[in-house]
Design a protein that fits this description.
Layout: H1 2-24, H2 28-46, H3 52-73, H4 89-108, H5 111-121, H6 128-135, H7 139-167
């Protein structure tokens, strides 16, 4: 019975959905799926409609109106909050692990370098003048000190990575 009803209504539903979907701002497949779901719920609760084609037309229009109302009520995000710059979950996880690894290495450098590198890595994006004021050094000393500290960090990380590769 249900299969016969679905088979009989499929061409009509396809035509109705193609007519209503553009104005509702939804994909035709989404609208069609919503109507099929509504029909299944109706069959489960009340049995088949007395006038299936009429019921189907009303259901399509009703779902299209619901979709239009939902579209008007929704405000788009500036960017997708779950968007990780097009990267998948694996890349996000690996990048986070690399950042933790570098931060841990920065903490193991000499205290003066650790403070300078933490200031350079700060999310506040401090200027050399602000870093110099925070560390109590001249602004002209920030660049050379930065180069020296990055060199130490580079040598430390290169040795650790080489040691890990030799073990693995």
């Amino acid at each position: 019975m249900t299969y016969d009803l679905v088979s009989a209504l499929r061409p009509l539903l396809t035509a109705e959905v193609r007519a209503e979907a553009p104005a509702s701002g939804t994909e035709p497949g989404d609208l069609e799926q919503a109507v099929w779901l509504r029909l299944l719920e109706r069959l489960d609760r009340h049995g088949p409609p007395s006038d299936p084609p009429g019921w189907l037309r009303r259901a399509v229009r009703s779902e299209a109106r619901r979709a239009r109302r939902a579209a008007r009520a929704e405000l788009p995000y500036e960017t997708d909050p779950a968007d990780a710059g097009g990267r998948g979950p694996e890349e996000v996880l690996l990048a986070a692990a690399r950042h933790r690894f570098v931060r841990e290495a920065v903490r193991r450098t000499a205290p003066r370098c650790a403070r300078l590198l933490e200031a350079l890595l700060s999310p506040a994006d401090l200027t050399y003048r602000e870093i110099a004021g925070e560390l109590g050094i001249s602004q002209g000393a920030v660049g050379p000190e930065r180069s020296r500290c990055l060199g130490c960090l580079h040598r430390m990380l290169a040795a650790e990575v080489a040691a890990r590769r030799a073990r693995g």
